[in-house]
Sequence to fold (674 residues):
Amino acid sequence: MEKWLPNPDPDAIHVVDHVTFFRLSRADHHYADDPDAVWWSVLVEVEGISIDQFQDRVAAFADDLLIPAAYDAADRRAVHGRQPIAIYARAPLIRHINDRRSEVGVATVLLGASAPDRFLDRDAQPRELPEVIVDDDAVLQAIIDDGIGIAHELFRSSATATRIHHARIFEAEPLADGKTSVGRGLDRADIDGLLQNCAFDDMLDEDLFYARSGQVDFGKGVFSTVALRRSHGTHIMALAAGEPMSDAAQKHPIICAALPSRIVNDTTGLEMVPVLYLAFHILVKQARRFRTRAGAPVPVVFNFSYGNTGGPHDGTGIFARLFDHYFGKDAETEQKAWLTLPAGNANLERLHAVSDERTEVDGTTTLDLTVLPDDRTPTHLQIWLPVSPEDEQPNIATISVRTPFGMDEGTIVTQPGQHAALVNKAGEQIAWLAYQYIGGQTQRGLVTLSSNPTANLLETSDLGPAGQWTVTIRRNAGASKEPIHLWVRRDETLPGQTSGGRQAFFDNLHYKRFDRYGAPLPVDPRDTTCPVQRAGTLSGFACDPAPIVVAACTEQEAVLSDYSAAGPLAPSPQGPQPPRDGPDLAARGDDSFVRRGVISAGSRSGSWVRLAGTSVASPQVARLAASAIGDAAGSGREWSRDAVARDPFPLKDHPSKTRTGAGAVRTPNRMTPD
Fold:
């Protein structure tokens, strides 16, 4: 029988991030190697110091630290108020910087995915990046995704000439040239050389190409979805930047970064963020190389077609600040840049709940959390509290958690150092409940619940309990009445990946899933008192005020797609109004109720496949944005409203502004087979 231990670790008050603490404290059999020898991607925010100063402060752990060569000398000298850095580190160093007593200048720590040693080159050095001169009317398109088929004909100007000026392949082993610390970097000349060596009578052997590019090597266990019929990154990049082979296509240069499938497949959400930051940093460096013949910086449109359920959802999360870090008012760049992001597909997933005056009974909200059996990934729940100052953190609520067959509850109050550990009858820790404060711009308390997988292919006894967990929030008398938001982290395996994750979700009885005809309800009933809500499900990546956020609609029926996530957001600490109401606009995510998804490129040249979701709506808007950014005077969001006004696609269901923003826009149906 499991039991909860209240506050078992007296040092917990010094932990910077409790999810990182939980993941590094799991039993040895959860790791492929000695836990202290495993390399991890980590995103750290240093405060008031440079990268060089951070490196000096952790010099005792020099053998456990890799600062990627993508950070050049200027990056390493720069000092900002708060500066995110994507590093690779081993457990001894991570534990050190995750302890506030270390005083190394680290404000936040996010633990990413483990990285096999063969994908890292600790001897790589920063290199000078020469300028790239393009036509005055050229627009650069930058794509971050996974499984990008860089040899596809839609990304070439001829049989043996690519339009891709740089591809960072994180899922490939580094070459011996010392250019990249992580993965493999292929410049245009490298890709052209591979195309020429893998073409026979102007016919490209794409299997041979991807073997030589390092993206697929089954003998070494290197896998990419480009080996399958359908790959997400190829589909997305074709929608955003695909063009028939011709000399004119050179006016549309591409840079891209392919995230490793092992990270996309690790579904705790936090896994992706460190490598995503590094990928964005690399592409920003590449984008700044591009100049017109007149010497001006070339405008660039970024697209990243993934969502995330975590974060404060108020525009202050660490990913939400990414774009502002590189292109905000303090970024010292004249390059015009827009970013398109999907709104997310979580509208019907029951991953979001709210505790407020409407859903509380006598100040208490009770939630049923279903954790499925045969889930081989951890389950994480975030509980975001109202804004409060760090030096006066109020005790807003008492949080209790009961396991499916537990007789007692794990209970904490929302104060520093509060935590509880769930242990099984063998004394092994299988879940962790803890409070921490997120400072900086966020200024909120955060309670996290982390549980071990409910299944493992190895014989093990430290599995988390499957079934219906009960989470109870009792708001204290006199505490702030502002809403408390709960988020279940994404936990299911994506198509094309190795199966393993099964999604946990809220399962309160009075949540109304269907209308009277049996169709899914896309909006919350007006008079609902259920804490599980569709409103506010916008992706945690899409809450910043700068990006163009795209919802999905179904073209033939002219309605918003049921799965398309919605606002509103939580109020930000900087003011009572959130940074956005929801998405900015909607675009085609499905051809019809029957023909789900839209057609775009398959993994191989000449093939066509369907994918659905806001992730395919976003790159279509990125294509429209690329045709307009050069002449646009305002921001990307201002352009998006004008685009809808110029060429609207009226929706018959008249969705609210929090679901569709300015409305739906027509997108050219260019990526279809003849």
Observations:
- The chain has a mean pLDDT of 92.
- Residues 132 and 290 are 5 Å apart (CA to CA).
